[in-house]
Amino acid sequence: MTDLTQLGVKAIRDGVAGGDFTAREVAESFNAAVAGASALNAFIVATPDHALSAADAVDARRAKGEDLGKMGGVPIGMKDLFCTDGVQTTAASHILEGFVPRYESTVSRKLWEAGAGMLGKLNLDQFAMGSSNETSYFGNVSSPWRKEGANAAMSPGGSSGGSSAAVAARIAPAATGTDTGGSIRQPAAFTGIAGIKPTYGRCSRWGVVAFASSLDQAGPMARSVEDCAIMLEAMAGFDPKDATSLERDVPAWEAGLDANLKGKRIGIPREYRMEGTDQAILDSWEQGKAWLRDAGAEIVDVSLPHTKYALPAYYIIAPAEASSNLARYDGVRYGLRDLPDGSGLQDMYAATREEGFGDEVKRRILIGTYVLSAGFYDAYYTQAQKIRALVARDFEEAFASCDAILAPTTPTASFPLGENSDDPLAMYLNDVFAVPASLAGLPAMSVPAMLNPDGLPLGLQIVGKPFDEQGVLNAGLAIQQRAGFDAAPEKWW
Q1: What proportion of the chain, given as a percentage, has pLDDT over 70?
Q2: Sequence-ordered strand ranges (E) for 116-261
Q3: Residue 117 carries which DSSP code?
Q4: What is the Cα–Cα distance from 318 to 211, expressed in whole angstroms?
Q5: Catalytic: 105?
Q6: 121 belongs to the catalytic site
Q7: Cα 278 to the chain's mean position, in Å?
Q8: Out of 105, 108, 163, 183, which one is annotated catalytic?
Q9: Is the pLDDT confidence value at 1 over 80?
Q10: Given this model, what pLDDT does residue 236 score?
Q11: Are 292 and 478 in contact (CB under 8 A)?
Q12: Mean pLDDT across the chain
């Protein structure tokens, strides 16, 4: 039999529906792969019984001739930011260690209803704060990739590093991610997979542990554009429990996939040619333009003049919202409680947060509290929101002359774990190309393009108009077909 762990979402779904293999056989294969990949530290907890139970339900429906669902028979990894009924949800933090929700996030519920099963809860940067998956309370995630001729552990990107590592290592065919400032796209680029952040509001945030509420958006991570389209259809949709949810029909993205870009105009933002960007990244960008021309698109220059202000604005807005969202973790209602002898309520708050939050989370809470404080609110937070509006306006004006934008996903390829951990600013710069689309709430996707001279993956980013996930997916498909990226990491774990 074919090694089922080498199959993606579409191949598994269609194979189960066609009787080529059973959903249980798929679940058993991936459960074994997860159990054998502990060295990656991609999963905080494995849930093999969940995967098998969902698979058995799909096989039973097939035996009755019933519809199997858009994700029928596909086991996936669930980023440990999505609350899952009866399964520990920690956001990779100590303060939520042992928290077991009695409810299901809307996104995960939709996936289970579509026939997917859960292989386990995936590791991430604590509270989704990080770009290398080194801030988790449960330890670093290692990328399955290594530099040619070297054994140093490499970053899988962040915050969705467990998701990207699991998909790239073929221990999950797909995984959920969340993207606040690039946390789907950057890890996808680092590990040679595809990932899309849909328009803000496409996927419900209900039941997702909050980082920055006006930026957080769930999306799929998989090995191909087609697989991302399938999974996004299952995840998306209006949710009355989320006040920011879009009340719009979910398009048939899979059926609408078309790599013919004739008549489309692709914008190249001149401001994205930044100092410090690796030459291999710039070379891949040039190649991406050629691929899109070959697909029939016209390449045009566009300007996004406020790009240079986007990253500093993001690192004011996101920490400000985080400081508000994380105030709920106080040791009173759920999660960790540290109550020193003879202490009062304020002492308990301080001790619980000191023990429960990691250094990066504390750093962002402090920054956020500062920029929201009296005397500094207008000087920092209000100004950052004005910049956000200008960034969004830049995209609106650019889209008057193009249908989508092509840019690098990251300024560099993956780097060794520990290389940037003592330099927060260097770490934050990983998101320089991803943050503008997040501030504007636009759909954006990273697609694998090629390997750099060190044998590490590089990704290209497509940014689309609001609600135009189809255009983003189609441009991504055009790149995917021409890049022919089929490289996989050599197994060392």
Answers
A1: 100
A2: 117-122, 174-179, 194-197, 217-222
A3: E
A4: 8
A5: no
A6: no
A7: 23
A8: 183
A9: no
A10: 98
A11: yes
A12: 96
**pTM of the complete model:** 0.96
pLDDT tens, residue by residue, 168-190 = 999 999 999 999 999 999 999 99
What sections of 240-381 are H helices per DSSP? 279-294, 307-325, 345-356, 359-372
65 is written with which tokens?
A: 């001739």
294 is a domain residue: no
Taking residues 350-359, what's their average pLDDT?
94
Phi and psi torsions of 191, nearest 5°: -115, 5
100 belongs to a structural domain: yes
- Residue whose C-alpha is closest to residue 487's, from 252, 191, 264: 191
Within-domain flag for 330: no
Residue among 361, 378, 448, 438 at smallest CA distance from 408: 448
Domain, as residue range, for 24: 4-263+442-483
Helix (H/G/I), strand (E/B), else coil: 90: coil
CB 193 within 8 A of CB 172: no
The span from the CA of 151 to the CA of 396, in Å, is 45
- Helix (H/G/I), strand (E/B), else coil: 70: coil
- Establish if 317 belongs to a structural domain: no
Phi, psi at 131, each rounded to 5°: -125, 15
Query: What number of CA atoms fall less than 13 Å from residue 381's CA on the CB side?
Result: 19
The residue behind tokens 């998909």 is 167
Annotated active-site residue 159? The verdict is yes
d(CA 433, CA 445): 12
Spot the catalytic one: 108, 159, 160, 414: 159
- Return the sign of the alpha-carbon dihedral for residues 30, 35, 36, 41: positive
- CATH number of the structural domain spanning residue 214: 3.90.1300.10
Task: Give the angle 117-76-51 at the CA atoms, nearest 5°.
Answer: 30
For the chain, the domain total comes to: 1
Given 10, 70, 79, 264, the catalytic residue: 79
Dihedral Cα 462, 465, 467, 473, nearest 10 deg: -30
**Reduced DSSP (H G I as helix, E B as strand, rest coil) percent helix, strand, coil of the chain, to 5:** 40, 15, 45
Q: Over the range 122-150, which residues count as b (16 or more CB within 10 Å of their CB) and which as e?
A: bbbbbbbbbbbbbbbbbebbbbbbbbeee
Q: What is the tens place of the pLDDT at every residue in 81-138?
A: 999 999 999 999 999 999 999 999 999 999 999 999 999 999 999 999 999 999 999 9
Residue 168 is encoded by which pair of tokens? 């790239």
State the pLDDT at residue 306.
Answer: 97
Answer whether the bond into residue 159 is a cis peptide, omega within 30°: yes
